[in-house]
C-alpha cells in the first residue's frame, strides 16, 4: 500500500456503510474489520510504533489496530492505570507496552521519549494522538495555554526528540511515518488571541 489510489481501493467497499451512520451500534466497519478484510493481520511484524493518548477513544483503537498488523506498539499515556483498564487483555509485553508521558509537561515528554529510546532503537510510526478539547482556561506545567501546549507543543517536542530514530528506521520499502491526529475544533473559533492572558 503506498498510493492514494491504493487507499481509495481499500476504502471503496465501505463507502456505502458510511453514508448514513447512526452513532454507536451502526453498521460501519471497525478498523480491525478493515484490517482483517484486507488480509493485513500480522503483515507488519518487526515494525515499531509510538502512539500518544492510548487510554481512551481513538488512541485505544489505533493501538489495537497497529498491534493486530504485527507492529510492536508503545502507548504513551499520562495515566498508566487508566490505560491498563482501557486496553485490558490487549496489553502484552513486546507487542503492546505502555510508557508514561504527560503532554501537559515538557519535562514529562522528554522523560517519556528517553524511556522509549531506552527500550527501542527502532521507530517506524509516530502517532501524535493525545489531546484535550474545550478545557477551562488553564496553563500547562510550562505556562502555555493548555490546548496549545498539550495538543501541539508537546507533540512537536516529541517529534524533535524522536526524529533521528524515525529517520534511521526508514527503508525504501517502508518509509517512517508521522501521523498527527486532529479535529475540526479549530473551525469554532474565529482567531487565536495570542496576547490574551
TrEMBL record:
Q: Name one Pfam family in it.
A: adh_short
Provide this UniProt record's keywords sorted from A to Z.
Oxidoreductase
Q: Which residues form a coiled coil?
A: none
Give the Gene Ontology MF terms in alphabetical order: oxidoreductase activity
Q: Which InterPro entries match?
A: NAD(P)-bd_dom_sf, SDR_fam
Lineage: superkingdom: Eukaryota
SUPFAM superfamilies attached to this UniProt entry: NAD(P)-binding Rossmann-fold domains
Give the record's family classification.
Belongs to the short-chain dehydrogenases/reductases (SDR) family.
Q: State what protein this is by name.
A: NAD(P)-binding protein
Amino acid at each position: 500500500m503506498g498510493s492514494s489510489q491504493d487507499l481509495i481501493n481499500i476504502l471503496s467497499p465501505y463507502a456505502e456503510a458510511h453514508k448514513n451512520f447512526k452513532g454507536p451500534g451502526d453498521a460501519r466497519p471497525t478498523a480491525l474489520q478493515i484490517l482483517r478484510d484486507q488480509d493485513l493481520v500480522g503483515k507488519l511484524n518487526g515494525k515499531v510504533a509510538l502512539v500518544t493518548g492510548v487510554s481512551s477513544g481513538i488512541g485505544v483503537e489505533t493501538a489495537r489496530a497497529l498491534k493486530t498488523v504485527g507492529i510492536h506498539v508503545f502507548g504513551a499515556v499520562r495515566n498508566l492505570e487508566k490505560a491498563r483498564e482501557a486496553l485490558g487483555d490487549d496489553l502484552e509485553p513486546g507487542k503492546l507496552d505502555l510508557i508514561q508521558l504527560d503532554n501537559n509537561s515538557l519535562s514529562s515528554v522528554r522523560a517519556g521519549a528517553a524511556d522509549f529510546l531506552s527500550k527501542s532503537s527502532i521507530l517506524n510510526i509516530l502517532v501524535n494522538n493525545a489531546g484535550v478539547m474545550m478545557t477551562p482556561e488553564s496553563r500547562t506545567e510550562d505556562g502555555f495555554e493548555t490546548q496549545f501546549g498539550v495538543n501541539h507543543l508537546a507533540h512537536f517536542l516529541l517529534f524533535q526528540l524522536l526524529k533521528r530514530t524515525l529517520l534511521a528506521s526508514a527503508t525504501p520499502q517502508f518509509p517512517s511515518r508521522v501521523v498527527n491526529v486532529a479535529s475540526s475544533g479549530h473551525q469554532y473559533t474565529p482567531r487565536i488571541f495570542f496576547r490574551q492572558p
